[in-house]
Structure formats: C-alpha cells, structure tokens
Amino acid sequence: MILKEVEAEITGSVWKIEVTEGQKVEEDDVLLIIESMKMEIPLLSTIAGVVKEIRVKEGEDLQEGKVAVIIEE
C-alpha cells in the first residue's frame, strides 16, 4: 500500500471538492478546485488510486504546499 499526499500548488480557497473518500481516481483527475485571484485552478491527482482522506473543506483557505488529499495507490 502506497499513500500519496497531494499538495496545493497555489494559495487560495477551496471553491469546490470534486471527489469523495473511497472514490477511485485516475492520474490527472480533478480532485478539487482552488479559487485564487478570481481564477479557478484545478488540483489534479498525481496517481491512479483510491481517495483515502480529504483534509480540506469547501470555503477553507489553503496555503501552497498544504496536503489537501491523500490517495492510496
């Protein structure tokens, strides 16, 4: 079992979460949308696997480098 932490690549707020815990995802699937400077920036899965944990909530401020989602390969 390999766990991969997916980190925010930009500072902003969590606009919309597109996945749920337990959901299967493929590499480059959209996990959530970050709003930053009036732009919507998708946070993509870096691997194929299953979403094990979502560590953010919609509306939450998110700092660059913060772990947002954990995926099990």
Number of helices: 0
Radius of gyration from the alpha-carbon trace, in angstroms = 11 Å
- Number of individual domains: 1
- In what order do the strands lie side by side in the largest sheet? 1-8-6-3
| Apparent shape | elongated
The helix-and-strand class reads mainly beta
* CATH fold-level topology: OB fold (Dihydrolipoamide Acetyltransferase, E2P)
User: What is the C-level CATH assignment?
Assistant: Mainly Beta
Order of helices and strands: EEEEEEEE
Which sheet architecture does the biggest sheet show? Answer: 4 strands, antiparallel
The end-to-end distance, rounded to whole angstroms, is 6 Å
How would you state the average pLDDT, rounded? 97
What fraction strand?
over 45%
Keywords: Biotin
Protein name: Biotin/lipoyl-binding protein
Organism: Planococcus salinus
Domain Lipoyl-binding: 1-72
Describe the structure.
This protein is mostly beta strands. It has one domain: OB fold (Dihydrolipoamide Acetyltransferase, E2P) (Beta Barrel), CATH 2.40.50. The chain is 0% helix and 55% strand. It is built from no helices and 8 strands. The strands form 2 sheets. A 4-stranded antiparallel β-sheet has the order 1-8-6-3, with no helix packed on it. Strands 5-4-2-7 form a 4-stranded antiparallel β-sheet, with no helix packed on it. Strand 4 (30-36) and strand 5 form a beta hairpin. The protein is elongated and about 35 Å long. The protein starts with a strand and ends with a strand.
